[in-house]
Amino acid sequence: MAKYLLLKHYRGAPAAVNDVPMDHWTPEEISAHVQYMNDFAARLEQSGEFVDGQALAPEGMWVRYDGEGRPPVTDGPFAETKDLIAGWMVIDVDSRERAVELAGELSAAPGAGGKPIHEWLEVRPFLAAPPTITECH
Amino acid sequence: MDEVLLRSLTPSVLGILVRRGADFAAAEDAVQDALVEAVRVWPADPPRDPKGWLVTVAWRKFLDATRADAARRRREDLHEEQPPPGPAPAVDDTLQLYFLCAHPSLTPSSAVALTLRAVGGLTTRQIAQAYLVPEATMAQRISRAKRTVSTVRLDRPGDVATVLRVLYLVFNEGYSGDIDLAAEAIRLTRQLAAAIDHPEVAGLLALMLLHHARRPARTAPDGSLVPLAEQDRGRWDTAAIAEGIGILQAALARDRLGEFQAQAAIAALHADAPTAEETDWVQIVEWYDELARLTDSPVVRLNRAVAVGEADGPRAGLAALDALDASLPRRTAVAAYLHERDGDLATAARLYAEAAHKAPDLAERDHLTRQAARLNSRLRR
């Protein structure tokens, strides 16, 4: 089994095919989208491949250490940040092919006009723990 | 086996162990072990005296653990003999436990976790699931909390307000996981109300019951939020409403108003209205005025602006909103709502989208996005 992170971006991914902001869909289209996402997660739980899913607020901040005895420096949020993560799903699957297949399904979630968004998702493999048996690889 | 009944015995059993001389942390572990044992044994062999059974088993677990822990830290003779059982003033024990678990030296998250375990009798795993953190994390949080309060003496009454804040936090956390935290908070507040006669305890219990009563109508079948005005009031739990209003009226009659009674009064006015249009907004504004005097919270003033918008029209609501800090959470959502009521759909749609962008949770974000979408669809026509 291998774990993969499916990353969804607010900004920074290549443009989707059906690229209409959500507040310009109809309420019914939003409901259909939310339903699709819930069903997708439920199906992965059923198949034993779901690990975690979280959504992130669009606005955060940058923080860094500012030296002994001083409070950390904070900055942002920056309106011009290019890459903005919207949320993620972690899956635990048998193969890279399966990870790609699932990301494809997620990207097919319906959007404006009830048509698939064809949204680009970033798929990143986890760096796993070293295997116990190393001789045969 | 009734797990809730079993858990309701937790605080008094724990209180008895502590009074027999067991330190709080060890006693709490022993009671948890006894609860686990009860779940295993009782279905086949139910005891005649469940509480006596739990005390006996928990005390034995405590002695075993203490012995195993070695005599190097405690003198054996203290624990050799089982003290005479004798009935205990269970109410006081329960109350002292609430105070201990909500002790001001604890952070809110620690107080919540410790209360759910030591007073509520939930397992660490259940609490971890409810708060969506790993079990090991929750176990650490609880054991640190126990260490923090281990030096607190149980001989003085604590501050009821700290206990109420903890229970309020539990209730507000909602319904994730197997454990229904809202129902659990109601159970614990009910138990507290039985142990102490205090109008604010009654006020909080009434507030919880009145909000819990709306729960069946709060979400659509697809999981989306249904705002108060659009809820199917036929699905509100009338028994819970009647109980909440009864408790609130008895508390208010004592003329010691506090913030929970005032919040419950607002919830009761909503519950009283057969339809959203018949809501007595004028009285609700008056209660918000009371609440603002009691708490001076910006959130209260924000909610007051909504009520003013309903009582005196959206322009009056927007004027009330003007005085509030622009960075206040949900202010933009309220502004969007008032602009829509005022007929300015374009501004409302823009503000709903902006509010969705800042929403603190997914359900609210989806709800606000839907509002923006609804108005944008109308504007396109």
Automatic annotation (TrEMBL), chain A:
Q: Which InterPro entries match?
A: Dimeric_a/b-barrel, YCII
Name the SUPFAM superfamilies on file.
Dimeric alpha+beta barrel
Query: Which Pfam families does this chain map to?
Result: YCII
Q: Which Gene3D superfamilies match?
A: Dimeric alpha+beta barrel (3.30.70.1060)
| Domain YCII-related: from-to ranges | 15-107
Q: Which family does it belong to?
A: Belongs to the YciI family.
Q: What is this protein called?
A: YCII-related domain-containing protein
State the organism of origin: Streptomyces calvus
